[in-house]
Amino acid sequence: MLTLVALPLLATLALPAAFAGGGTRRWFGGRSESQRAEAQAAKDAAAAAFYELDTAQRDLRISIETITAVDDSPAARRAVSDFAALGRRIDEASQKYITAVDAHDLDRDELEASVAARARGELVAAKDELVRVKADLDRFEQSLAPLLGKAETQLARLAPAVERARQALLAASNALDSVRRSGLRADDLAARLAALGPELTKLNQGAGQHGVAETLERAERVSREAAAVRSEAERLPERAAEIDHRLVSLRTRAQALTTRSEQVEPVLSELRRRFSTACWQDLQHVPEQAAESVRQAEEKLREARAAREAQRWPDATSLLATVRALLNSTDEAVSAAGDRLRRLNAVQKDPQQEIDRTRFAIRDAQRLAMAGRTTPDPRQARPLDDSVARLDRAVATLEGRHPDYWHFLTETEAVRQTVARVVAQIREERGGA
Fold it and tell me: Where along the sequence do coiled-coil regions lie (predicted)?
């Protein structure tokens, strides 16, 4: 009886095995299930490609926005145009992928093998197109590297540059306040600082409104101008003290020149008494000219003092420069009379010293001109020969009852200058060779 009961059970267990192993197809699945799995794998691959392309496009859009925020060059505009063209290709490839996904329900029961195969083909084609566009997008991204690097560098400079400008303005304002507390008005510096106010407003509005390049340029300009205001403000007390010192110094010098100019007339009297007219006639107006120059200098000093009291620093500085020039010319004129008398006394006492000094200069130049040569260069020999003749004529003027010593001195000086030019020419030519 146990044997009879077991037989139906064995038959029941053997039946599916017979269909699975020896039949023509599987009871569940078969070829359609294999096609469904391949289509699903193609769908997953296409989805991954779509996601990668979408992510790359988003990242690249940020790069393009970075470039356009900074750069308006033809290369940057071309990059924007090329990115837009790539965007259209991405849209086309994405639409092809979405259409292929929407056209086939791979989870539907009883999916035919032919439908699954067609779905797989369309999804593979969509994935391949997404991959191709992604490759083009990657190449385009690589080509943007120089533009992007330049843009990122400028953006990295933006915030520090704006902050430096703000700090420079604050430092200039503090320096100006400190100067005012010391009693100096510094109105011109205050006006220059106030003129930077609108620039600070634009800096605070940001690069989004005015552009990165313009904001950078503005920040650097504000920093420079504010630093200049600060430097001048910090130096203003020293400048005021310097002007005060120059007022006192030039006033003392003017007084001293007044005293010295009074001594010119006795010098001229001696020159007139002992030497010929040619030796002193160019100096006879020195006393009047010196007195007039000192008078003008004193007037400019009063004007400079008034400018200093009004804290008109540029005017005070300019007036003091004028005073200095007037006193310098007066000093030279007053000194010329005494120097003339000294030189004339020396040559009258011993003219040979001046003659020997000049002849030595000529002979030294002649030796240099003949060094390493058998005949002199005419360009050098002629002016040296002329100098010898000119010196002889100057010596001849010393003969007579009232020699023109001043003419003699000016002639010997001119001869030495001519000889010095020849020597310089020789050395320059030999140095170049």
Answer: 116-143
Predicted pLDDT at 432: 63
Question: Do residues 407 and 345 lie in contact, with contact meaning Cβ atoms separated by under 8 Å?
Answer: no
Extract the tokens encoding 297.
């200098």
* 295, HSE (Cβ side, Cα atoms, 13 Å): 6
Please determine, for residue 408, whether its predicted confidence score (pLDDT) is greater than 90: yes
CA 343 and chain centroid, separation: 54
Between CA 178 and CA 70 the distance in angstroms is 39
Residue among 235, 117, 107 nearest 178 (CA): 235
DSSP labels for 261-302? HTTHHHHHHHHHHHS-GGGTGGGTTHHHHHHHHHHHHHHHHH
213-222 tens-digit pLDDT: 788 889 899 9
User: 0.70 exceeded by the pTM?
Assistant: no
Q: Give the span between the Cα atoms of 68 and 9, in whole angstroms.
A: 80
pLDDT band at 123 (very low <50, low <70, confident <90, very high): confident
Q: Please state the φ and ψ torsions of residue 374, each to the nearest 5 degrees.
A: -95, -30
**In the chain, what is the straight-line distance between the N-terminal and C-terminal CA atoms, in Å?**
137
Q: Fill in the amino acid letter for 383.
A: P
| CA separation for the pair 106, 418 (Å, rounded) | 110
Alpha-carbon gap, residue 220 to 164, rounded angstroms: 8
Burial class, 136, CB count within 10 angstroms (exposed 0-12 / middle 13-18 / buried 19+): middle
User: Any idea where the domains of the chain sit in the sequence?
Assistant: 29-143, 158-236, 262-346, 350-432
Specify the amino acid at residue 141. Answer: E
Q: What are the φ and ψ backbone dihedral angles of 177, each rounded to 5 degrees?
A: -60, -40
Q: Name the token pair of 399.
A: 């003969």
Of the two residues 160 and 111, the one the predictor is more confident about is 160
Burial pattern 256-274, b for ≥16 Cβ within 10 A else e, equals ebbebbeebeebbeebeee
